[in-house]
Amino acid sequence: MRLRALLENDSLGLRLLGGEEELDRTVRGVMTTDLRDPSRYLSGGELVLTGLAWRHAPTDSESFVQILATAGVAGLAAGEAELGTVPEDLVQACARHRLPLFSVTESVAFATITEHVVRQVSTERAGDLAAVVDRHRRLMSSGPAGGGPDAVLDLLGSDLDLAAWVLSPTGRQIAGPSEGPVLPHAAAARLAGAHMAAVRTGRRSPHRTVDEGVAYSLFPVSRGTGDARRTVLSDWLLAVAADTGDWPAERLDLLHGVTQLIAVERDRRDAARTVRRRLAQEVLELVQTGAPPSEIAARLRVAAPVLLPGQGAAPAWQVIVARVDWDEPDPARALEGGAIAQYLLEELLVDPRATGPDGSDRIAVAHVDGEAVALVPLTGEAEAGAEHPDDSEDGAGTGRTETAPTETGRGAAPDSGTASASGADSHPGTGARSTAEGAQEQGPARLTGVRGSEGLHADTLLAEVSEPLGRALANDGRLTLGVSAAVHSAEGLRGALEEARHARRVAAARPGAVRAAGHEELASHVLLLPFVPDDVRRAFTARLLDPLREYDRKHRAELVPTLEAFLSSDGSWTRCAGRLHLHVNTLRYRVSRIEQLTGRDLSRLEDKLDFFLALRMS
Q1: Looking at the DSSP assignment, which residues form a beta bridge with residue 215?
Q2: With 0-12 CB in 10 A as exposed, 13-18 as middle and 19+ as buried, what is 381?
């Protein structure tokens, strides 16, 4: 399409400010940016939309326009919402570089212009491309007749023979083709990790990769430009099972156009979360300010029908606290991580294997002081083993309970608060199932696709997603998460919030990019170990274990493994000997050697405890 055609549509709110003689330029795409230097994202021929956030002084206009002109963009459209009228220094800079300049009235959203340009440009493609884009409005429809993103992916498959999936940062399938190859969750998680790692390096999309012999091209479904850390943990991606290395520009433009349309759909879904976020924020403010339990209970009664339609009041609630921190030596570039953690926590609380529409319409997440706080309603068996509080009108009573064990592994957690990066396909217990059949098996009280319908535990919450998130966080970011026990009353929420926050601090004291801790660890030695100073830790473990390690190195005696097995067997000679496949006399000899080398007595509880802690801290 030509630039001139944009002025023929009054609904776009465009007014020409300069460059009339250049209006026959061809528009090949559209890009929204507020970067001072967006050159690495430009390929030429774009209509650039900007809100002028990059302009801090009149001299900024010259450098910005020069960059656009050098990149060969078709034109520049500046919004009037930020500064009112378009600054004269920008008008003059565009005139010097012969770059057509438009103003965009504040009543017209950039998304409207983006959709129009994508539609017009795409319909001018060659036959097989036009067939897809002509029907793009399905993506914008929220009703079942339109089909949403899945319908567009079906069109890519039927018209272009392209298998494609829309994935979240955790690898969860947002949309996919109704027919054709299935993308396993483990592969989707690896693709999400590869995509986010490429985004962090600043590489230009599409990002090409090979997974288990299959070539994929990964296109970002970006909601903005600027520092990648702001959006890398929340942006979707379009994964196409094809190598785009030799594709013509027209076909690449089509896929970039599809991602822009999907981004609009993402914005629509985000807008739908506003009510739930506001409810969570209101409850959080009441809890933090020490409001009466009756007032908090009243707010929970309002929230329950929104989060559990048709279920009535939630029998129990759980609080999850998450924080994303970035290493940033320059205070001026420091990121406020609350909103980042909010987007990510909303995603983490959805079963990563669930497909189709978001389960996050059952989740309320607020953010305050750099951390995200989720209020998770528990249903089904979460309350099966709980002691319910007194049936007082205001919900008073302690209301604290331990989550009952369930068949999906959401009950009592093992002695670990760290996330595992084990293969997702082999991981047991992934929360509520995503199929109708699975939901029927679980009973009507459980939420399809939502993690936490049976109570969440820290060790399983991050197990399937720690690998892709770790690649996004790279070497300068950390995700830490704390999980409270379930509570059955409004009065219990304040304690649950503090419990989740304290568990998160325990997780933060551990090394690693992705760490979680649960309420069960707050009553264990595990709570204390992360806060032991490193020099004390090293001195303590060296004094007890270095003599054994040195002896093992010289004699291959396996004293350290023997010590670990002996303590794990609670000091039972028979069980320990059986575990190590040793004669009891051989075991007694090894334990005697341990005592000689360290000067300790393994029949004494104090010495057993010292060895136990030394092994844990090492």
Answers
A1: 210
A2: buried
Residue 30, classed as helix, strand or coil, is: strand
d(CA 74, CA 31): 11
φ and ψ of 612, to 5 deg: -60, -45
Tokens (6 digits) for 5: 């055609």
- In a 3-state reduction of DSSP, which class is residue 125? coil
Task: Lowest mean pLDDT of 84-88, 283-287, 417-421, name the range.
Answer: 417-421
**Strands lying side by side in the sheet with 164-167:** 173-175, 164-167, 236-240, 214-221, 207-211
Helices (H), 213-337: 249-272, 274-288, 293-307
How far apart CA 399 and CA 237 sit, in angstroms, is: 42
* Extended beta strands in 416-546, E state: 477-483, 486-487, 514-518
Cα R_g (the chain), whole angstroms: 29
pLDDT tens string 320-371: 999 999 887 777 777 778 889 998 998 888 888 777 655 556 678 998 888 9
Is 395 in a helix, a strand, or coil? coil
Rounded Cα–Cα distance for residues 440 and 103 (Å): 55
Residues 154, 148: Cα–Cα separation, whole Å: 10
What DSSP state is assigned to residue 250?
H
Quote the CA–CA distance of 438 and 449 in Å, as a whole number: 10
Which stretches does DSSP call E strand in 115-261? 164-167, 173-175, 207-211, 214-221, 236-240
